[in-house]
């Protein structure tokens, strides 16, 4: 499917909101857009889908899949393999990408625009708290839901994660159902078994 472009008026009709509301979303950086040489705003269909899923709004059929894109970051390959296996039954709802590097995750988040990230706190190149802080520092990444994970789960670590911008901090091994709920994955869709 090609990435269709939408005007603010197209989006306002599609979502049944005022065009000025769409403009405010764009100006605040919560809906990704670009301007034409004439100064008109344009939104790619993929960015509009991301916005709707992130903000728990229904995705109109003409925008295609309501799949949630997640990026899992852990320097231990066996942990990432376990996460992949755990999410496999939900392949119809979740598109999971993985990386073993916090630095690579910072590059991928701009490129792939995931709806959410699962980030290990203890990584050699850059720790998970710093990954969270750097993502939160980017206005255009404001809607990305961040969850940290650690084998050293304590109330202090949970608080540090939340201060860095994470929605939650989970103990390893991950509770997949809880992760799906935190990312608002539409579980009404049947999981592929």
From TrEMBL:
Coiled coil: none
Thylakoid in keyword set: no
InterPro entries: Bact_response_regulator (IPR050595), CheY-like_superfamily (IPR011006), DNA-bd_dom_put_sf (IPR009061), HTH_17 (IPR041657), Sig_transdc_resp-reg_receiver (IPR001789), SinI_DNA-bd (IPR010093)
Alphabetically ordered keywords of this record: Phosphoprotein
Key word Ligase present: no
Organism superkingdom: Bacteria
SUPFAM superfamilies: CheY-like, Putative DNA-binding domain
Modified residues (4-aspartylphosphate): 120
NCBIfam families recorded: excise
Annotated protein name in UniProt: Response regulatory domain-containing protein
């Amino acid at each position: 499917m090609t990435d269709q472009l939408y005007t603010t008026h197209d989006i306002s009709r599609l979502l049944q909101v005022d065009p000025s509301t769409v403009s405010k979303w764009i100006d605040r950086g919560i809906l990704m857009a670009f301007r034409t040489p004439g100064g008109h705003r344009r939104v790619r269909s993929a960015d509009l889908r991301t916005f709707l899923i992130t903000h728990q709004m229904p995705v109109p059929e003409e925008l295609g899949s309501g799949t949630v894109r997640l990026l899992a970051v852990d320097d231990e390959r066996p942990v990432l393999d376990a996460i992949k296996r755990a999410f496999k039954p939900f392949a119809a709802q979740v598109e999971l990408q993985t990386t073993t590097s916090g630095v690579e995750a910072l590059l991928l988040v701009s490129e792939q625009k995931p709806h959410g990230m699962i980030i290990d706190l203890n990584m050699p190149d850059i720790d998970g708290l710093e990954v969270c802080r750097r993502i939160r520092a980017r206005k255009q990444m404001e809607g990305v839901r961040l969850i940290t994970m650690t084998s050293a789960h304590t109330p202090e670590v949970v608080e540090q994660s939340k201060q860095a911008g994470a929605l939650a901090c989970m103990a390893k091994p991950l509770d997949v159902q809880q992760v799906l709920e935190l990312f608002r994955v539409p579980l009404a869709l049947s999981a592929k078994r």
